[in-house]
Amino acid sequence: xxxxxxxxxDYINPYLKGLHNTIDGWRPNYDEDGWKVTxxxxxxxxxxxxxxxxxxxxxxxxxxxxxxxxxxLRRDIEALLExxxxxxxxxRVHRSRRxxxxxxxxxxxxxxxxxxxxxxxxxxxxxxxxxxxQWTDKxxxxxxxxxxxxxxxxxxxxxxxxxxIFIFTDNFVFESTYYKGYSxxxxxxxxxxxxxxxxxxxxxxxxxxxxxxxTRMKAMGVDGLSRGDLLDGMMAGQDPLSFVPLxxxxxxxxxxxxx
Length: 259
Known about the structure:
The chain has helices at about 1-10, 15-25, 40-50, 70-85, 140-155, 170-180, 185-205, 215-220, 220-225, 250-255; strands spanning about 105-110, 115-120, 125-130, 165-170, 205-210. The protein is an alpha/beta fold and about 260 residues long.
């Protein structure tokens, strides 16, 4: 049933992983949280198995009648309850009627400041400021994620509906966490991503998160917003979309270097 639900409400998909972790967590090459052991941990695990095993092979372990609930499943259930809270099924936009208004939301948070910019068809709406004291000791990954998500939540509260949003960021952790729906190391970052999916549901949005190089962020002028610098890139009057040429393929962008 959930497979068919996810085909419509794709933002639910990241929160089905805990079910898989629980179902397959009994297998010998899975850790205590239900994640498959890989890399060096897998090699170490195999050595331990070889050391402990006898010369004669025993019967192959079969699936148990009951499995232990993994921590990820508990968290996923909370997320699913939040995303499915509306009594009526939310509308899903698969092709925005406002493509011409395409929003580009570059964002950056460095040091004690933060900055982001909305590139509308009619101009640029930017924001720059400093973090409160309780945020200064947080990781840059969390601050940049919260910076971007707060902006989208604000747009939704301002009645933005059915728009396709492109988020450009030089934070690879934010990009990967968005598509996975969780962070293994930071529950706070996972909560921020859940807020983003909630805003997507409420605003009937189509959101793409695209990782770009930090040098491109600096050239755009967004990096300087976190320091109050308004004299670079698009903030100085250059065409903002020229820094993110999505209309060009890899060969065109590389000047013919790609065969």
